[in-house]
């Protein structure tokens, strides 16, 4: 559905924020992981046709979205990282306003708004001003506006910021349901946001794409790179400065560490089965080593 070809982007002449990105995406959820500043929002803004890239091509169903953005826009839903709402409007008023911007006819708009309010559990508060909403409710309104045109491509940029754990889970479940018949691209720096729902995982570092495959393949690739080790407090202080410590748990002997490393970090370290978070750290560590 979506092909990204040799995409490179510069905001300033000497600093590429996206470097030669290539991706072929089809239906399902793609989790885009990367630290702050990795280039996730820049990539998403380009895919949402809000920014033209410096070089490269993006094809939606075979047609260039750079030359013909309108072609994708009709089928696009976008929830940006910073989603502002008009506080004094009610949800119904806000969604009607966005429907007008999306040029939906009145009948389609009314029916879509009713369906979305129902499925996002917002019907009972639809006539309240948005200023009275919690973070999770606002995020559901954000998703509702992105889904008004029943988009075939849904882009959500760091959607779980500000949500409590329960709201996070609800949001994940909702995305999993929505992915049945569309492509969803979700960016985050929190691995648990996409764990269990992403069909594939893309990892970015310094504007480069370092990984694109399933979560299982990612975990397999990290085998023999994750180690558990019991150390004294002094040894922990040493290891902290030389190793990627994924987890440190204090106990009566000092610390039980989980270390991500291509080599056995200590003769007493034993290899353990990587979690998705460990595997993500392993990709980042390898990317840092390549850059160094
Ligand atoms: N409009 C802009 N003008 C200049 N530089 C920018 C602009 N937008 C982003 N950048 C820079 O591009 C780099 C990538 O930023 P981007 O927002 O795409 O990353 P990100 O992975 O989404 O991170 P975050 O989660 O912090 O938003 C950063 O160094 C950022 O400072």
Helix content range of the residues, please? Answer: 25-40%
Helix- and strand-based class? alpha/beta
What's the CATH class label of the largest domain?
Alpha Beta
Structurally, the number of domains stands at 3
Structure, described:
By secondary structure, the protein is α/β, with parallel strands linked by helices. The chain folds into three domains: 131 residues, 3-Layer(aba) Sandwich (Rossmann fold), CATH 3.40.50.300; 66 residues, no CATH class; 72 residues, no CATH class. It is built from nine helices and 14 strands. A six-stranded mixed β-sheet has the order 6-7-8-3-9-10, with helices on both faces. A hairpin with a 2-residue loop joins strand 12 and strand 13. It binds adenosine-5'-triphosphate (ATP). Adenosine-5'-triphosphate binds next to helix 1.
């Amino acid at each position: 559905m979506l092909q990204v070809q040799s995409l490179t982007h510069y905001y300033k002449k000497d600093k590429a924020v996206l470097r030669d990105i290539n991706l072929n995406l089809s239906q399902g959820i793609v989790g885009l992981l990367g630290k702050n500043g990795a280039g996730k929002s820049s990539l998403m803004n380009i895919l949402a046709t809000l920014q033209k890239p410096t070089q490269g091509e993006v094809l939606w169903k075979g047609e260039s979205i750079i030359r013909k953005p309108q072609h994708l826009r009709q089928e696009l839903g976008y929830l940006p990282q910073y989603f502002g709402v008009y506080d004094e409007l009610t949800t119904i008023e806000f969604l009607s306003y966005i429907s007008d911007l999306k040029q939906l006819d009145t009948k389609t708009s009314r029916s879509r708004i009713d369906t979305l309010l129902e499925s996002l559990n917002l019907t009972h508060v639809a006539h309240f001003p948005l200023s009275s909403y919690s973070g999770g409710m606002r995020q559901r309104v954000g998703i509702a506006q992105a889904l008004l045109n029943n988009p075939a491509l849904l882009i959500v940029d760091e959607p779980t910021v500000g949500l409590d754990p329960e709201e996070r889970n609800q949001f994940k479940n909702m995305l999993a349901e929505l992915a049945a018949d569309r492509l969803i691209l979700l960016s985050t720096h929190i691995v648990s946001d996409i764990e269990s729902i992403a069909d594939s995982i893309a990892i970015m570092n310094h504007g480069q794409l370092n990984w694109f495959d399933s979560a299982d393949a990612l975990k397999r690739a990290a085998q023999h790179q994750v180690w558990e080790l019991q150390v004294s407090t002094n040894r922990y202080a040493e290891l902290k400065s030389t190793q990627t410590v994924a987890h440190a748990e204090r106990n009566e002997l000092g610390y039980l560490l989980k270390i991500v490393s291509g080599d056995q970090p200590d003769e007493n370290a034993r290899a353990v089965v990587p979690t998705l978070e460990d595997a993500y750290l392993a990709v980042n560590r390898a990317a840092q080593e390549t850059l160094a």
